């Protein structure tokens, strides 16, 4: 089993800040779109055991590192919010 | 749900070629180490649905793209094979 620790870290970050990102849609589909887009722009950090995620997480206690992650997340949230593709927002088109 | 399509593609590639990579150990721990190391050196391609993995896979029908993946895999296989850290190879130390 291999896990990208950034997946967990970014998901936690999105869950924490989704209400402050001024998202036009907060359905699961849009949140997944934001997450996938952000992770594609983030260097992967694969570990072989979920216990090891905390070692990667520890690096992001540093405020500058965490801020750069947050900037990526906010940029991707804007891209998805500007043009959401979920069923809820496209059903009227 | 988000999935890194490269995870599946690289795992399939490793399964196909593991017998030809002259690995010093082929236990699950070492194979995971190779996979994690390779994925950390590979640009992630996250999709929001496992059905979409095939679109990413289609890009690697191109021989040059597939070869560059294989080169990464072989390099990481050598790193792990030179210094395996699994229980089986370290229990005598």
TrEMBL record, chains A, B:
This is Competence protein ComFB. The lineage of its organism: Bacteria, Bacillati, Bacillota, Bacilli, Bacillales.
